[in-house]
Amino acid sequence: FVCELAFNPQSPEILDNYRVACSIVNGSKYQLSLSGHGHRPKLGFSFYSFDFGPCFIHNTGMKPNETILVVTNEDKVDVSYEMLFENTPYLEVDAPPTVLAPGEFQKIPVIFRPQEAKMYTNTLRFEVNGVTIINVNIAGEGTKMRVELANPSHAHLNFGQLRIGQEV
Known about the structure:
Elements: E1 13-23, E2 29-38, E3 43-45, E4 49-56, E5 65-73, E6 79-83, E7 91-93, E8 98-100, E9 105-112, E10 119-128, E11 132-143
Parallel strand pairs: 4-11
Antiparallel strand pairs: 1-2, 3-5, 5-9, 6-8, 6-10, 7-9, 10-11
Protein name: HYDIN/VesB/CFA65-like Ig-like domain-containing protein
Subcellular location: Cell projection, Cilium; Cytoplasm
Main location: other
């Protein structure tokens, strides 16, 4: 038979001769003494919150607003992660399930294309080693593209007489 025991502490934890009894129905009883230490996976994120701020409503041909989220394995063992987020028309994140060796990192592009004039907020949920959830908050604002004069009296300017190619 197989007995699987998982130890997934959310903070540094030490087990020292922790007594456990494993009883098999209509069978034997086993006494176990467990020792060990554990901690949350040490997966570092370059940010846990990012605000794109005001951005023009996206139109075809426009360059999208983009940032890079860097995920680094700061642990001594391999760490896996999976992003639990589905892309939307306004937020695209390219983060397939990944296993990082110690010291290895992955650059994750985060692309924001606002579709209308409003505030946007989303949470990217990363499941680490199938147990721990790490949240990264993304925000931004869609704004209409509009050009106005700071001073309305500058609506008409007289440049005088100019020659072709002359700079003022």
